[in-house]
């Protein structure tokens, strides 16, 4: 399953807890935040001023490396 900007952060973490480090490495430090349970990667990226495309690419690259 490829990750997209529409995926909810909480769902990605539940399915792939090994990606927590990739979120951290890309500036997404709010993994434990209650909002992350319902926010898409794109929504959270906008709030935190991050590049959603770069984050999604990093997450998919990390999945391929597993």
UniProtKB/TrEMBL annotation:
Which residue range or ranges hold the DUF1858 domain? 3-56
Source organism's superkingdom? Answer: Bacteria
What transmembrane ranges does the database entry give?
Answer: none
Pfam families, sorted: DUF1858
Quote the InterPro entries the UniProt record gives.
CHP03980_redox-disulphide, DUF1858, ScdA-like_N_sf
NCBIfam families linked to this entry: prismane_assoc
Q: What is this protein called?
A: DUF1858 domain-containing protein
Which organism is this entry from? Mogibacterium kristiansenii
